[in-house]
TrEMBL record:
It is found in: Cell membrane. One of its GO terms (cellular component) is plasma membrane. This is ABC-type transporter, permease component. The chain crosses the membrane at residues 20-42, 252-275, 296-329, 341-362. Keywords: Cell membrane, Membrane, Transmembrane, Transmembrane helix. Coiled coil: none annotated. Residues 19-221 form the MacB-like periplasmic core domain. It holds the Pfam family MacB_PCD. Residues 253-369 form the ABC3 transporter permease C-terminal domain. It comes from the Archaea. InterPro entries: ABC3_permease_C (IPR003838), MacB_PCD (IPR025857), Macrolide_Exporter_MacB (IPR050250).
Length: 376
């Protein structure tokens, strides 16, 4: 049997012990993948919200620390009069106020309803696939394609939102799952529904061609920074940045915990494996195997176990997260699986394999052949 074949087969000679080790590390890997996908999804969702329709930047109210805001961005609403003020800033081509509300509809308590003037829907980058746009002076909405499928609704149906009846005038598609799982209505209608007349959640801003975005945002911050905040990325929103930092910290802590606990588990597994194969290792040394070859074999076996844990843990993480999405536990948030998440998971798995396998491998490589052959 070749050296490589030994590395791949030896870890599974005691199947029960190998399975327990794989499950232990796999749970940590699954958690890393799930948290990473949630963080990436949250980042993508917020970034697309802030730059809807190709807007150059957004303007929000100050961070609301009261914990009572209904704004998903965690900021307070502010007067819609700021829209005309921003439109008059030098370098601004167009500004549109929107109201983002979390409402309840049949079968979902967390449904995103966005209010915007119908003449400003270019900011939302909507493509109507059925029906017509809502009217500003009527209780009408357009539904995203995904939400229409989930709610089994189509044009001319009615939808109850927070106890009020709205007529569905159109179905839209944006290509962004987060928007396609929500609905749009007129700004005034959403303000009234949220009992927040005259206020908005944010302003989308486009600047004139050739104008430096940073200079425009600086002008706005200098003149009106006491009341509103310019947002060019999600890191500019304290609440969201804090939430992402929290999830990233949790992911790092779990990675560290996985390395420590997984490393201890692998040390135990590989030490037992070395004990049981002491005579076998003695034979290999007697036929000419060098200590570094024994070291490489045991380390290789350790890494095979942890990489297998990485594969299984990644699958469990993705499947578990998709089940939560299907059950609606994550609301409208869609997890995003990036190569970085899986690279991070497999990097942790390999580090666990190296850390956990190092001592047993060193110990096996130091065994004297004669003593190993006498081992009972």
């Amino acid at each position: 049997m070749s050296f490589i074949s030994l590395i791949f087969k030896n870890p599974f000679r005691n199947k029960s012990r190998a399975i327990l080790a794989i499950i232990g590390i796999g749970i940590g890997i699954a958690t890393i993948v799930a948290l990473g996908a949630i963080t990436a999804g949250l980042t993508s969702t917020m970034d697309e919200t802030l730059h809807a329709g190709g807007s150059d930047f957004s303007i929000s109210g100050k961070t609301d620390n009261s914990g009572t805001t209904t704004n998903p961005l965690g900021t307070s609403t502010f007067s819609e009069n700021w829209t005309s003020t921003i439109n008059n800033v030098s370098g601004v081509k167009n500004a549109a106020g929107v109201y983002i509300g979390m409402v309840s509809v049949p079968d979902s308590r967390f449904f995103t309803l966005i209010g915007i003037d119908s003449k400003d829907t270019d900011f939302a980058d909507l493509k109507l696939t059925k029906g017509t746009m809502f009217k500003n002076d009527a209780d009408e909405i357009i539904l995203g394609k995904i939400s229409a499928d989930k709610l089994n609704k189509t044009v001319n149906d009615n939808l109850e939102i927070n106890g009020e009846e709205y007529k569905i005038t159109g179905i839209f598609e944006t290509g962004d799952p987060n928007q396609d799982e929500g609905a749009y209505s007129s700004l005034k209608s959403v303000q009234d529904l949220m009992d927040d007349a005259g206020n908005i959640s944010m302003i989308y801003v486009k600047v004139d061609s050739g104008v430096d975005v940073d200079s425009v945002t600086k002008t706005i911050e200098d003149d009106y920074g006491d009341n509103i905040t310019t947002v060019t990325s999600i890191s500019d929103i304290e609440t969201i940045a804090n939430a992402l930092d929290m999830v990233n910290s949790a992911s790092f802590a779990i990675s560290l915990l996985a390395i420590i606990i997984g490393g201890i588990g692998i040390i135990n597994t590989m030490i037992m494996s070395v004990y049981e194969r002491t005579r076998e290792i003695g034979v290999l040394k007697a036929v000419g195997w060098k200590g570094r070859r024994i070291l490489g074999m045991i380390l290789g076996e350790s890494i095979v176990l942890t990489v297998t844990s990485g594969v299984i843990g990644s699958i469990i993480g993705v499947v578990g997260l998709e089940i939560l999405v299907a059950l609606g536990v994550l609301g409208s948030m869609t997890p995003m699986y990036t190569p970085y998440i899986f690279l991070q998971a497999f990097a942790v798995a390999i580090v666990v394999g190296l850390v956990g396998g190092l001592y047993p491998a060193w110990r096996a490589s130091r065994l004297p052949p004669t003593e190993a052959l006498r081992y009972e």
